[in-house]
Each structure stands twice: as structure tokens, then as C-alpha cells.
Write a structure and sequence with these properties.
Blueprint (H helix, E strand, L loop, with lengths): L16 H12 L4 H38 L15 H11 L10 H19 L16 H9 L1 H12 L3 H32 L4 H6 L13 H17 L24 H26 L15 H22 L5 H28 L4 H26 L12
Length: 400
Amino acid sequence: MSKDNIPLWSPEHLPLLPQRLVEMILANLGAPEWLVSISGFMVAASTVLAVFMTAFALLSLIERKTLARAQNRIGPNRAGWFGILQPVADGIKMLTKEDIVPARAVKLLHLLAPILIVLPAILALGVIPYGREWTPVPLELGLLFFFAVGSMTELSVFMAGWASGSKFPMLGAMRAISQMVSYELPLIITALGVVMVSGTLSLPEIVQQQGGGFWHWNVCTPWGIVAGLLFYVCTIAEANRCPFDLPEGESEIVAGHMTEYSGFKYALFFMGEYLGLFAIAGLFVTLFLGGWQAPLPGLGLVPTWLWFFGKLALVIFSYLWIRATFPRLRIDQLMRFAWLCMIPMALLTLPAAAIWHYMGRGPLSWMVVLPLVLVPWVLVAVIFNKRLAPATRTYRFADG
């Protein structure tokens, strides 16, 4: 369907309404075509940014409410009815707090680091297909672009630690980068299985190939079960969520690479973390959960973007549930788990995906591929728990 034939007020095309209105007004005023295209692109980007900035504010409240409910306490309930204005109060507080820059800090890099940590998340959100007609930037190499801009996060974290002029932020930055690099490897390897089966790096095309019902989603294949679980665990680590929230160390005296930041710069780090959470969770939904595809063929009346955001909400709620349930890992446990468990299993998903694809994706493929991924999974789990885990500690107390 061409842009001229897209109805303005249909539920499916509702997210495109601001962009279409601006393009129509400029076209009627006789504006040049390049100005109409650039203006439409800017409005589309602003729409995506407004949606996720609102989601960031709401999630900051929902997460605190969820954790409070899990811990049998009330949570934020003073600012507005039921605490609904708490994100506004937090924003005002961060804007009015004093911006303290250490005397030994490299002031320009100290300023750029929190900005550069938000920018990759915003760019990554631009290539995700949110609906059948709603892909802000439909790149042919969208998955490659996603991982390319995501690598900027390590640079900004290192910049924040080094530019602070203190040993504690630098050590925290090194710890954060080691975690990010370690878990990016299985994250990318498991995504390669999707690329092999789909034959494309275009995210909209990957979603198109998962249509026809939930049984066509990549997570509902023998290799996709393992790859999806590994990818999901890596998204938690990449988003610095519990139990992998080692970079900030929020219960410690210092806050990792953010130790020497205050005020709105400190808030930008959290904004980048939450926007990155939306981006990586959206990629998980796109690659393994069918993206905007409905779970059953007869549900086409529901706008596709509602299916996407419904799945995204469920994935993010699982992150909140995990944070309320599991304790934080030690750094040695975290690194051991990545290199001795996650990466070997991620490499195994590649031949499994190839066999599944070339054997016709039928019952015979299930019989061959399922043992190929489950048997090593059990073996790695047993070895990891029995031999690679730290020995049981014996505590001895001095007699009184």
C-alpha cells in the first residue's frame, strides 16, 4: 500500500498519524519534496522518542511499585494520586540538584559520557519494527546496525570512568566493560542463528517470516528454545539488571563508573539504561517472539503494534520479577557463567539451526535437533554446578 492510500484514522496506522499529518500539510503548502521527507522522518523519530520517554517515566514508577509489592511494603504514594506523579517529582529533583564536577576530571569528556550513553539506545530504537506499517527506519541491515550502535555503550562507560579522574570510577568502568563484552558474545552468536534461518538482516523481514501463528515463532523451534533462553539471559546482563547488576553496584558505597556524577548527568545514565532495556527487550521480541505478529491467525483485527507492546510489557515485567526474586551474583560467578556456560551453548545453537533449516523443519528435524541441544545443555549444567562452581566454604568461629 502506498503512502497516499494509507487511511489516517485507522487503528493500525494510528502511530503514523503525526507523520502523515505533517507531510500532508507541507505538501499542500507547496514545500519541496526533500523538506517533506525530512520533516516526516523527524516527526516519526519524535513519535518513537515520545513513546519511550513516557514508558521510561511509567516504568520507573511501576518497577518501584512492583518491588514494593514483592517486599510487602507500600512504595511511592505521596506525589499525586497513588504516586502517579512520582516520576515528575524525580525529574524536578534531578534538574534542580547541583552538578558537581571533580577538579581532576576531564570536563568535556565528563559531560559527553552521559549524553553518549543515551544516544545508542535512541538510535537502536529507530530500527525495530513496532507494527506492520510502523518501522521508523526500515534498514536492510537493521540487525547489524542495532549491534553496531550498541557497541558505543562500552565507549561511553569507559569515557565516564576515565574522565572522572578517580580510581573508583575507573575500576567500576573496567568491571562494567568486562561484563558487557562477555555477554555480548553469546548475544550476537544466538542472533546469528536467527539470521541463518531467516536469510536476512532486515528486522521487518525476520518478523514477516514468523507469521501464521505462534508455532512459527523462532522460540517454538528446538534450536530456538535454547537460543531464545540464552538471548533472554544476555539481555538481562546487557541491560545491567539483577542478578547481573554488577556495573553500578547500587548497594555499595560507590556506584561504579557513575560515582563522580550528580544531578541531571546522573539521571541521564539511568535514562540510557532504561531506553537500552526497551531496545534490547524489543529486539528479543522481534527475533524470537514473532515481533508484531499475532499469536493466532484469527486475531488480525487487533492492531499489530498492540501485539508488539503487549509482548514487550510481558518481557519487561519478567525482568522486574527476576529483580525482586534473585540476589546479585559475584563478579567471578558472573564471568564464569558467561565463558564456561553461555558461550559454549550459544555456539551449539548455530549447527542446530543449520540442521533444522536444511532438514525441512518437520518432525524429523525435531527428533534430530532436540537431543542435539538438550543433551549438551544438561551436561554443561551438571559440569558447571558440580565442578566449576566454587567449593563450599567452611566458616570457623573463635571460641569465646
